[in-house]
C-alpha cells in the first residue's frame, strides 16, 4: 500500500513538473555587458530565475557592442533568433528605430513597468514621435577619479570643496607638482578623448552639436578653442601622453585626476590601498559644468511572432530588475535609475551618487544623434592628435569631423 | 565534331532559358490573393534559404559545361550538363516545397498592405510553382545531354571516359566548398561595391559612383582614406617583405649547421608563428609602453615608440618576429631536399660558400622562393591587426593601413558600398603585383 | 687539407650555435615577460613598476614575488569574466573545430594538388589559377554575405559554421603543388606500368613523398583554425559556443581597465594548445626538414 502511494506521489510530482515546464516562459535576453559588470548582471539574473522557477527563465547572452549592433538588425531582417529583450546604448536608439529594428514598449509600460519609477528626463530621450521605445536601466557617465592621497601630498584638497573640478584648478595642481620637482613622473590629468571628453566641454563653451532638424553642426572655432585648452595643459607638462597607460599610472600613484567612466569603478574598488573619490569630468566653471552621460536602456526588437505571454514575462523581469538594481551600484559601480533604489541610504553613500544629483541640476546631458556611429568613427580617425601635435591647426579639427560625417551620410 | 557544335548550341539555349526562368509565388489571406513572379537570379540575390544556395552550383556547372564544349571536351561537357540538370530539378523540388519563403515575403506583404490587409508572419503561407520556362529549361538540358552522350559501347571508350572524368572527382570537394563559401560571398561582395548598402537593407545599385568618390573626389574623406591607407599599406609591404624573406632563410640555413640544441632552437624560432593576433599584440604593446615596457626601461630608449617614424620600426620588429616561423619551416623543407652531391660537386670545382649559395641553393629552391615571396607579399598587403591594435589612427593616421579603413567603414559606419569599393581597389593592386611576381619567377625558372 | 676543412666546418658550427643561442634569448624576451607577469596580481603588477631606477632594478621588477595563479583561476571561475562563458567549453569547441578543419583540409588539398599537378586534364591549370586569383580579394567584402549564407543553411550559433566555410583555401594547394613538382614523374610511370590506378598512385607514391609538407600544411591549418578570432565572434551568438581565441578576445570587455594580469594569463592559455600540438608533431616534421644530422666534413 505504501509503495503504491509512493509511486503515485512520485508520478504526480513528475507530472506536475512537466506541467510547469510546459508553462515556463523563456526570455532571450541580449546585453552589451561583456566585462566585469556582466558578471554582476548575471548574478542578478540567476537570482531572478531562482525566484521565478517554473514560470519564467531568462537566458542571458552578452555580446560585444560592435557585434550586437550588426547582429541585431540582421536577426530582425531574417526573422531568425530575434531576442525578446535587450539592453543597449541609448545613443544608438534613434537609428535602430529609424531602421525598423525596434518596437515600442507601450505594452510593457501598461503591463507591469511603471514609468513613474524612472526619471522623466531620460524617458523623454527615448520617446520618438509620441511612442516610447526605451526604458532606462542606468546612467553610463564620464567620471573623473581623484587620487586623494596624491592630492593631499601636494596640498590641494581644497579643489574638491565644490563638487566640480575646473581646468584652472587642474592647472594649479600641475603647477604644484612642478614646484615639487616631480613633473616628469607625476601627471595631473589624462585625456579620455572620445565623446565623453569632447561633447560636454564643447557645449559648455557654447557650441551646439545637433540643430533642430537633427543635423550635425560642429562649430569649428569653438571646437578649436577646446582643443587649444587641452593642448596648453599638455605642453605645460601636466597631461599624460597619448601612448601612456593612464589607468596603471593612476593606480600606481602617478596620476592625480583620472578621466574615465562609471564602468571603471568596479575594478578600482578591488584595488587595495587605493584611496579615491569620483567627481564629474573637469569643466570650465562650476556653474556651467556639463558631463556627458549615456544610458543603458531596455529595448525590444521588432518581432511579430512574439506572444503576449512572453511580453508579460518581459515586463515582470524588467520591473524586478529595476527594483533589485542596488547590486548594480554596489558591485558594478554603476548608477541605476530606478527611483526607489536611488533614494536608499546605501546608494547615497556610494562614490558615484553625485551623478544622480548632478543630473537633477541639469549638469548632465544625455546626447542622442541619429548617426552616432558615424560621429564616433570620425572622432577616432581625426579627433585626437591635434592635442598632442602643435603643428596641426586647432580650427581644422572640428571641420574635419564635420566633413567626415557629412561625406559618410552622402555615401550611405 | 558536329555533335559538339550542336551540343554547344543547345547548352547556350539551356543557359538562356535558365536565366529567363522564374517561379510564381502565390499567397492567400482572407480571400485576397496576391502573386508575384521571381526570377532565379533574384532568388540567388536574396540568399534566403538552403534551396536557393543550389543555384550558384548550377551556374558554375553550366559555365564549366560551356568551357568544356568550347574546348572540344564533349564527355566532360556531358558530365557538367547532367550535373546541372539534376541540381536544377532538385532545386525546383526543394524550392517549391517551402511554404514560408522569406525572399518573397516582403514583396507579397507590401501587396497585401496595398489592399489594406495586415497579415502576421505566422499566418503567412506562400505556394510556389515553377513557370513554363522552367520546364523548357529542363528539356533543353536533357536534350544537350542526349546529344553529347558519351560512347559507352566498348571497354576502351569506357576506360578513356573514366580517365577523362576522374580528375574532376579529385578536385570536386575543394571546388564545391570553394563555390559556396568563397566564390558566392566574393561575387556578392564585389557587386556591393557598385551599390549603396547599409548592410541591413537591400543594396541599391549606383554604378560607378563609389569609385568616382574614392578615386576622383578630392577633399572627400574617403578619397583621403584610400590614399593614406593604400600608401601606408605599400610602405608596410616594402619595409616588411625583405625581413620576411631574408630572416627565415638565414635562420633555416643556420639551423642546419647546428647539431646540439637543434630542437630547442627550432621551437624557439617557430613559437611566435603559433600565436594569434591578439596574443602577439598584447605581448608587444606591453613591451613598448613607457610605464612597464621592456624597451623603454631596459634598453633605455627615450623616444616614443608608438609615434612615427619609430612606429614603423616597431611594426617591422613585430612582423618579422611573428611571421618568421611560417616561412622558416617551408625553407627548411626545401633545403633538406637539395641533394648533397650538388654541393660536393661545387666544392670540387673550387666554389666558396657564397658561390655555393648562389649557384646551388637558390636554383634548387626556386619554386619555394617563388611561393613564399608571393604569399608573403599578399599577406602583408592584407595586414590589419598589428597597426590597428597598436597605433590605431593616432598621429593623423600615420600607420593606418587600408584594411583598417575598409573594416571601419563597413562595420562601424555601415557604409558598406564604399568599403567594398576600396577593397576591390586593394584587390586589384594585389592581383597586379602577384601577377608580375609570378611572371618574373616563371620566366626565371624556365631559364 | 682534409683536417683543416673539418676544423673550419667545426668553427662554423660553433659560431652558428652561439649566435643562434644568443639570438634565441633575445627572441624569447616578450614571451617570457608575459609569462612572468601573468603570475602577479593586478595590485602587485602596478606596484612592481611604480618605482625602480635603471635597467637592473627593472629586471628585478619583472619577476613576481611569488607564483600566483590567481589570474588563471579567475579565468576558469569567472571572476572578472562574464560568468555565462565557460573556458572549458570554449577549449572543447576550439579542439573540435581545429582538428576537424585540419583533417578536412589535408584530405581535400592533397587530392586537389595531386589532380592539378599529376593528372592530365586541360582545364585544370586554368581552374587553379582562377581560384588562386579570386582568393586575392580581401576577405572583408565577403564576410557579411558569408554570414547570410550561414543563416540560410541554419548554421548560426552552430559549430558547423566554424568548420566548413574555412576549408576552401588555395594557398595550401599552391604549396603542395610546388613540392610535388620535385617528385620525379618516373615514379608515377613505374607505378602505372605495374597497373596501379590513379588513386593507388596517389596513395602509395605521392602521399608518402610529401609527408613533411603535409605536416607543415597540417600545422598551418590547425594554427589558422585555432587562431581565428574574427569569424567566431560574428557567427556565434553565445559566448559558450565561441572558440578559445575569440572568447578570450571578448574578455577585454567593453572597457578594459586595470586587468593586465588577467589579459596576460589569457594570452598564455591561448598559446598552450598550438604549442603542445607543435611539440608532438615536431619529430615528424623535423625528420623531413632537417638534414640527417651528419654534417659532412
At the first level of CATH, the class of the largest domain in chain B is Mainly Alpha
CATH superfamily of the largest domain in chain A: Periplasmic binding protein-like II
Largest interface, counted with CB-CB under 8 A? B-C, 109 and 107 residues
Counting H and I runs of at least 4 residues, what is the number of helices of chain A?
Answer: 20
Radius of gyration of chain A: 24 Å
Report how far apart the termini of chain A are.
Answer: 78 Å
Mean of residue pLDDT values of chain B: 85
Q: Percent of residues of chain B in helical segments? A: over 70%
- Low-pLDDT ranges of chain B: none
Net shape of chain B = flat
Supply the CATH architecture of the largest domain in chain A. Answer: 3-Layer(aba) Sandwich
Q: What level of helicity do the residues of chain A show?
A: 40-55%
Query: Which fold name corresponds to the CATH topology of the largest domain in chain A?
Result: D-Maltodextrin-Binding Protein, domain 2
Order of helices and strands of chain B: HEEHHHHEHHEEHHHHHHHHHHHHH
- At the fourth CATH level, what is the homologous superfamily of the largest domain in chain B? MetI-like
Number of helices of chain B: 20
Characterise the protein shown here.
The complex is a heterotrimer of chains A (about 400), B (about 450) and C (about 300). With about 400 residues, chain A is of the alpha/beta class. Chain A is about 50% helix and about 15% strand. Chain A folds into two domains: about 25-140 and about 295-360, Periplasmic binding protein-like II (D-Maltodextrin-Binding Protein, domain 2, 3-Layer(aba) Sandwich), CATH 3.40.190; about 140-295 and about 365-410, 3-Layer(aba) Sandwich (D-Maltodextrin-Binding Protein, domain 2). In chain A, strands 1, 2, 3, 4, 7, 8, 9, 10, 11, 12 and 13 form an eleven-stranded mixed sheet that branches. In chain A, strands 5-6 form a two-stranded antiparallel ribbon. In chain A, α10 crosses α20 (about 395-410) and α18 packs across α20 (about 395-410). Chain B has two domains: about 1-175, Butyryl-CoA Dehydrogenase, subunit A, domain 3 (Up-down Bundle), CATH 1.20.140; about 210-445, MetI-like fold (Orthogonal Bundle), CATH 1.10.3720.10. In chain B, the strands form two sheets. A three-stranded antiparallel sheet of chain B has the order 2-1-3. In chain B, strands 4-5 form a two-stranded antiparallel sheet. Chain C folds into two domains: about 1-75, no CATH class; about 85-290, MetI-like fold (Orthogonal Bundle), CATH 1.10.3720. The termini of chain C are close together. Chains in contact: A-B, A-C, B-C. The interface of A and C includes residues 42, 63, 78 and 272 of A.
Amino acid at each position: 500500500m505504501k509503495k503504491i502511494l509512493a509511486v503515485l506521489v512520485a508520478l504526480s510530482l513528475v507530472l506536475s513538473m512537466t506541467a510547469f515546464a510546459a508553462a515556463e516562459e523563456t526570455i532571450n535576453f541580449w546585453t552589451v555587458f561583456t566585462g566585469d559588470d556582466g558578471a554582476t548582471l548575471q548574478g542578478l539574473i540567476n537570482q531572478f530565475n531562482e525566484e521565478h522557477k517554473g514560470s519564467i527563465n531568462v537566458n542571458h547572452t552578452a555580446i560585444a557592442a560592435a557585434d550586437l549592433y550588426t547582429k541585431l538588425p540582421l536577426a530582425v531582417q531574417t526573422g531568425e533568433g530575434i531576442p525578446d529583450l535587450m539592453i543597449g546604448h541609448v545613443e544608438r536608439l534613434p537609428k535602430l528605430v529609424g531602421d525598423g529594428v525596434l518596437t515600442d514598449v507601450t505594452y510593457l509600460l501598461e503591463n507591469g513597468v511603471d514609468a513613474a519609477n524612472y526619471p522623466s528626463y531620460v524617458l523623454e530621450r527615448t520617446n520618438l514621435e509620441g511612442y516610447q521605445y526605451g526604458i532606462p536601466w542606468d546612467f553610463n557617465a564620464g567620471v573623473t577619479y581623484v587620487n586623494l592621497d596624491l592630492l593631499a601630498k601636494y596640498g590641494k584638497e581644497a579643489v574638491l570643496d565644490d563638487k566640480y573640478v575646473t581646468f584652472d584648478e587642474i592647472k594649479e595642481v600641475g603647477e604644484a607638482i612642478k614646484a615639487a620637482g616631480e613633473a616628469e613622473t607625476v601627471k595631473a590629468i589624462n585625456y579620455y578623448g572620445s565623446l565623453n571628453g569632447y561633447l560636454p566641454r564643447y557645449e559648455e563653451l557654447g557650441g551646439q552639436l545637433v540643430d533642430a532638424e537633427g543635423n550635425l553642426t560642429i562649430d569649428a572655432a569653438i571646437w578649436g578653442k577646446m582643443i587649444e585648452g587641452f593642448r596648453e595643459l599638455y605642453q605645460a607638462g601636466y597631461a599624460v601622453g597619448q601612448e601612456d597607460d593612464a589607468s596603471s599610472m593612476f593606480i600606481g600613484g602617478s596620476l592625480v585626476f583620472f578621466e574615465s567612466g562609471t564602468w571603471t569603478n568596479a575594478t578600482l574598488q578591488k584595488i587595495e590601498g587605493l584611496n579615491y573619490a569620483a567627481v564629474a569630468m573637469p569643466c570650465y566653471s562650476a556653474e556651467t559644468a556639463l558631463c556627458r552621460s549615456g544610458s543603458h536602456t531596455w529595448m525590444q526588437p521588432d518581432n511579430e511572432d512574439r506572444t503576449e505571454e512572453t511580453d508579460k514575462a518581459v515586463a515582470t523581469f524588467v520591473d524586478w530588475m529595476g527594483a533589485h538594481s542596488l547590486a548594480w551600484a554596489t558591485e558594478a559601480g554603476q548608477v541605476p535609475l530606478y527611483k526607489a533604489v536611488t533614494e536608499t541610504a546605501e546608494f547615497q553613500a556610494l562614490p558615484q551618487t553625485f551623478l544622480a544629483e548632478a543630473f537633477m541640476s541639469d549638469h548632465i546631458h544625455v546626447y542622442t544623434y541619429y548617426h552616432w556611429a558615424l560621429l564616433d568613427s570620425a572622432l577616432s580617425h581625426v579627433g585626437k592628435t591635434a592635442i598632442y601635435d602643435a603643428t596641426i591647426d586647432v580650427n581644422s579639427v572640428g571641420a574635419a569631423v564635420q566633413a567626415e560625417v557629412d561625406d559618410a551620410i552622402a555615401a550611405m | 565534331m558536329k555533335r559538339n557544335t550542336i551540343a554547344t548550341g543547345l547548352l547556350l539555349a539551356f543557359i538562356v532559358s535558365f536565366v529567363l526562368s522564374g517561379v510564381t509565388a502565390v499567397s492567400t489571406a482572407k480571400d485576397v490573393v496576391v502573386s508575384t513572379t521571381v526570377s532565379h537570379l533574384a532568388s540567388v540575390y536574396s540568399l534566403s534559404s538552403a534551396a536557393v544556395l543550389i543555384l550558384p552550383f548550377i551556374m558554375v556547372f553550366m559555365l564549366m559545361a560551356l568551357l568544356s564544349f568550347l574546348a572540344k571536351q564533349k564527355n566532360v561537357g556531358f558530365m557538367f550538363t547532367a550535373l546541372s540538370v539534376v541540381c536544377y530539378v532538385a532545386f525546383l523540388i526543394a524550392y517549391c516545397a517551402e511554404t514560408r519563403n522569406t525572399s518573397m515575403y516582403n514583396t507579397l506583404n507590401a501587396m497585401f498592405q496595398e489592399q489594406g490587409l495586415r497579415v502576421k508572419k505566422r499566418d503567412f503561407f506562400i505556394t510556389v510553382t515553377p513557370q513554363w520556362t522552367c520546364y523548357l529549361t529542363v528539356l533543353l538540358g536533357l536534350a544537350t545531354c542526349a546529344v553529347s552522350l558519351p560512347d559507352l559501347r566498348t571497354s576502351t571508350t569506357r576506360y578513356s571516359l573514366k580517365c577523362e572524368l576522374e580528375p574532376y572527382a579529385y578536385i570536386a570537394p575543394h571546388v564545391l566548398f570553394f563555390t559556396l563559401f568563397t566564390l558566392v560571398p566574393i561575387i556578392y561582395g564585389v557587386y556591393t561595391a557598385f551599390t549603396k548598402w547599409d548592410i541591413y537593407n537591400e543594396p541599391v545599385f549606383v554604378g560607378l559612383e563609389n569609385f568616382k568618390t574614392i578615386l576622383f573626389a578630392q577633399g572627400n574623406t574617403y578619397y583621403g582614406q584610400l590614399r593614406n591607407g593604400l600608401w601606408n599599406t605599400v610602405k608596410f609591404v616594402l619595409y616588411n617583405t625583405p625581413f620576411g624573406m631574408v630572416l627565415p632563410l638565414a635562420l633555416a640555413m643556420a639551423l642546419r649547421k647546428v647539431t646540439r640544441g637543434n630542437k630547442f632552437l627550432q621551437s624557439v624560432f617557430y613559437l611566435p608563428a603559433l600565436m594569434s593576433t591578439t596574443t602577439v599584440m598584447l605581448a608587444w604593446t606591453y613591451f613598448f609602453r613607457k610605464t612597464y615596457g621592456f624597451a623603454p626601461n631596459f634598453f633605455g630608449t627615450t623616444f616614443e615608440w608608438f609615434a612615427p617614424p619609430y612606429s614603423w620600426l616597431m611594426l617591422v620588429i613585430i612582423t618579422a618576429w611573428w611571421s618568421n616561423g611560417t616561412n622558416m619551416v617551408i625553407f627548411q623543407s626545401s633545403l633538406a631536399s637539395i641533394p648533397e652531391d650538388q654541393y660536393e660537386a661545387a666544392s670540387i670545382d673550387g666554389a666558396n660558400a657564397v658561390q655555393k649559395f648562389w649557384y646551388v641553393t637558390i636554383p634548387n629552391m626556386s619554386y619555394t622562393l617563388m611561393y613564399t615571396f608571393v604569399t608573403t607579399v599578399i599577406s602583408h598587403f592584407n595586414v590589419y591587426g598589428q597597426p590597428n591594435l597598436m597605433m590605431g589612427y593616432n598621429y593623423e593616421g600615420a600607420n593606418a593601413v587600408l584594411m583598417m579603413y575598409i573594416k571601419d567603414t563597413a562595420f562601424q559606419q555601415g557604409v558598406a558600398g564604399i568599403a567594398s569599393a576600396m577593397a576591390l581597389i586593394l584587390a586589384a593592386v594585389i592581383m597586379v603585383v602577384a601577377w608580375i611576381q609570378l611572371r618574373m619567377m616563371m620566366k626565371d625558372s624556365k631559364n | 687539407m682534409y683536417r683543416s676543412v673539418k676544423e673550419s666546418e667545426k668553427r662554423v658550427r660553433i659560431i652558428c650555435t652561439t649566435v643562434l643561442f644568443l639570438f634565441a634569448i633575445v627572441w624569447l624576451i616578450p614571451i617570457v615577460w608575459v609569462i612572468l607577469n601573468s603570475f602577479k596580481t593586478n595590485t602587485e603588477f602596478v606596484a612592481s613598476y611604480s618605482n625602480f631606477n635603471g635597467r637592473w632594478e627593472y629586471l628585478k621588477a619583472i619577476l613576481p614575488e611569488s607564483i600566483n595563479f590567481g589570474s588563471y583561476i579567475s579565468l576558469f571561475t569567472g571572476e572578472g569574466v562574464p560568468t555565462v562563458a565557460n573556458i572549458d567549453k570554449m577549449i572543447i569547441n576550439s579542439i573540435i573545430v581545429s582538428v576537424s578543419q585540419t583533417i578536412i583540409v589535408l584530405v581535400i588539398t592533397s587530392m586537389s594538388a595531386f589532380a592539378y599537378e599529376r593528372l592530365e586534364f586541360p582545364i585544370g591549370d586554368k581552374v587553379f589559377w582562377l581560384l588562386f586569383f579570386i582568393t586575392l580579394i580581401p576577405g572583408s567584402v565577403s564576410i557579411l554575405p558569408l554570414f547570410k549564407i550561414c543563416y540560410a543553411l541554419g548554421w548560426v550559433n552552430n559549430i558547423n559554421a566554424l568548420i566548413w566555410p574555412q576549408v576552401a583555401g588555395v594557398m595550401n594547394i599552391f604549396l603542395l603543388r610546388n613540392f610535388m613538382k620535385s617528385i620525379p614523374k618516373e615514379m608515377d610511370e613505374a607505378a602505372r606500368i605495374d597497373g596501379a590506378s590513379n588513386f593507388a598512385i596517389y596513395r602509395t607514391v605521392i602521399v608518402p613523398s610529401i609527408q613533411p609538407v603535409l605536416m607543415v600544411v597540417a600545422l598551418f591549418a590547425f594554427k589558422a583554425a585555432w587562431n581565428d578570432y574574427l569569424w567566431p565572434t560574428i557567427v556565434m551568438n553565445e559566448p559558450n559556443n565561441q572558440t578559445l581565441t575569440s572568447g578570450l578576445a571578448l574578455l577585454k570587455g567593453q572597457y578594459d581597465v586595470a586587468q593586465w594580469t588577467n589579459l596576460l594569463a589569457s594570452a598564455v592559455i591561448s598559446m598552450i594548445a598550438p604549442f603542445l600540438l607543435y611539440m608532438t608533431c615536431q619529430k615528424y616534421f623535423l625528420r623531413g626538414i632537417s638534414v640527417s644530422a651528419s654534417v659532412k666534413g
